[in-house]
Design goal:
The protein is mainly α and about 220 residues long. The chain contains 8 helices and 2 strands. The chain has a two-stranded antiparallel sheet. Helix 1 runs antiparallel to helix 2. The protein is globular, with a radius of gyration of 22 Å.
């Protein structure tokens, strides 16, 4: 039973249980896409059916991670299949558990309010936004926001962080951002704002069917 109910893997060379960050990022990407599509459907069409199923899937998956064993989490198993040929990047299990407990609390709240009570409110909207932000940062940047909270709450240094960010004190030259690069980013945002201001009315016009395929099918 101890081999089933366990959090983290024992890997030679590591003094504490660890998890494969590559699998976690892949799983986060999968859950992000699922949650994003279901939230978009609810927000644009007012159809919450897909979101209710997504909440149940998310809650079940993360409960398995925290209270049973991460290696039996369906999303992490799929993530393992996807990145199975990549060299593992190990991360301390303890801070991940703390982050996923936050996810359990958010998922249970959503389950009660949306699925059981069958309601929506600014609370459910805020929770959805928080979940998307957490999942996006994990999958896109490899940044575990919940893990950062772990260090703040427990006042101790997390071990084996992704990308060795816990140990980095000075940036290498390839990591440094020059003033020119910062000006490019600022200029890019200005460019986007000007594009919206100048072309918003033009872009708001609905495109016409160039070949008339949609029009001809509607007349039949």
């Amino acid at each position: 039973m101890s081999k089933i109910i366990k959090f983290g893997e024992d890997v030679e060379g590591y003094t504490i249980p660890v998890l494969n960050e590559r699998e976690i990022r892949a799983a986060a990407g999968i859950l992000f896409v699922m949650m994003f599509i279901s939230i978009q459907t609810a927000a644009t069409k007012g159809d919450f059916l897909l979101l209710k199923y997504a909440v149940i899937i998310f809650l079940t998956d993360i409960v398995i991670r925290v209270f049973v064993n991460p290696k039996y989490s369906p999303s992490l198993i799929i993530g393992r299949l996807i990145v199975g040929n990549q060299v593992p990047e190990y991360v301390g299990a303890q801070q991940k558990k703390f982050a996923w407990i936050i996810g359990v609390v958010l998922a249970i709240t959503m389950f009660v309010l949306l699925v059981i009570v069958n309601s929506f409110s600014p609370i459910t909207g805020l929770i959805c936004l928080i979940c998307l932000i957490f999942l996006f940062f994990e999958s896109a940047f490899g940044i575990c926001l919940g893990c950062k909270l772990y260090s703040m709450v427990y006042k101790e240094k997390a071990q084996y962080c992704p990308g060795e960010i816990c140990n980095v004190t000075t940036k290498q030259d390839i990591q440094k951002t020059s003033k020119v690069q910062m000006m490019i980013v600022v200029g890019f945002f200005v460019y986007i704002i000007l594009t919206v201001i100048l072309f918003n009315d033009t872009f708001s016009n609905k495109p016409f069917d160039l070949f008339g395929i949609g029009t001809s099918s509607q007349t039949k």
